[in-house]
Write a structure and sequence with these properties.
This protein is of the alpha+beta class and about 280 residues long. It has one domain. Helices cover about 15% and strands about 30% of the residues. Strands 2, 4, 5, 8, 9, 10 and 12 form a 7-stranded antiparallel beta sheet that branches. The termini are far apart.
Length: about 280
């Protein structure tokens, strides 16, 4: 269509942040760090290459996701371990914090709960920032590689994409069928993945992750959590995903419990206070 005469004026309108977050509840990072200093390791799970693994973290514990053996990205799902209807809400986490998460930011849960599920307390890749292409690390913009999109675009039948990996892991953990488990799998935190949007076409892109063995992302569990982590078949996502061509490596999840009383009177955040009348 032809441009209107005031096209430049319309484009020049300044943006307004949709959700100013200055009034969000602020995590007590000093308390978390003090509690973490005396915490003891109480569990470990390995997500093998091109597979996923489940893990559990009690409210008030910490969990650390670490790159081992080689550069590797992972797709993370979280649920309230006592109510699987409450799960990580990547879209609202993105709206509240931005396209990529780092230290001091939170993984928020789905409606009607909308409360912090986990808080990032340490990120060894926080130095990366935003690069010249608009890329950054730990995104909440990608959905997870899945067999349906692969079939749509290439006619493939690939079963070790993150969606399928997570589905198998959840089915095994909860002793249910794949058909029952699949609807529980949801959009992810792409741990260690370096992503952004192209400036010219607005397309979602990935590039080689800056992660190296020993890098980690550590989070504080705000509620009792069931987690599932897939070691993506894209490896460091430098070229492609959903194939067996990329070099892939395991990811390690460690769980740490603070000493008795280290968190003082801390308690899990309450569910969202909206009255749910919806105008009726």
């Amino acid at each position: 269509m032809p441009e209107p005469t005031d096209a430049d004026v319309r484009r020049a309108v300044k943006p307004v942040v949709c959700y100013p977050n200055e009034t969000l509840p602020v995590p007590d990072m000093d308390l978390y760090r003090t509690a973490r200093d005396g915490a003891e390791k109480v569990g470990e799970v390995i997500a093998p290459p091109r597979e996923a693994a489940c893990f559990r973290v009690a409210a008030g514990q910490f969990f650390r996701i670490t790159s081992v053996d080689g550069p590797q990205v992972g797709d993370l799902n979280l649920w309230n371990a006592n109510d699987l209807g409450e799960r990580f809400y990547s879209g609202k986490s993105r709206a509240l914090h931005g396209t990529h998460l780092t230290t001091g930011e939170r993984m928020w849960s789905s409606f009607p709960y909308l409360r912090p599920m986990a808080t990032i307390v340490e990120d060894t890749l926080d130095w990366y920032g935003i690069d010249q292409y608009g890329g950054s690390v730990h995104d909440v913009i990608g959905t997870r590689c899945d067999p349906y999109t692969g079939n749509l675009l290439a006619g493939s039948q690939y079963h070790h994409c993150c969606h399928s990996n997570l589905t198998r892991a959840v089915a095994d953990e909860l002793e249910m069928s794949l058909e029952e488990a699949e609807p529980l799998v949801h959009d992810v935190l792409n741990v260690f993945m370096c992503t952004g949007f192209t400036r010219d076409t607005g397309q979602y892109f990935m590039k080689a992750s800056p992660v190296r063995p020993g890098d980690y992302l550590e989070l504080f569990a705000e509620v009792d959590l069931l987690g599932a982590l897939s070691a993506c078949p894209g490896g460091d996502c430098s070229a492609e995903h959903s194939s067996d061509a990329a070099a892939c490596y395991p990811l390690k999840v460690e769980v740490f419990a603070p000493a008795e009383g280290a968190l003082g009177d801390w308690a899990s955040p309450p569910v969202n206070g909206y009255d749910r009348t919806h105008g009726r």
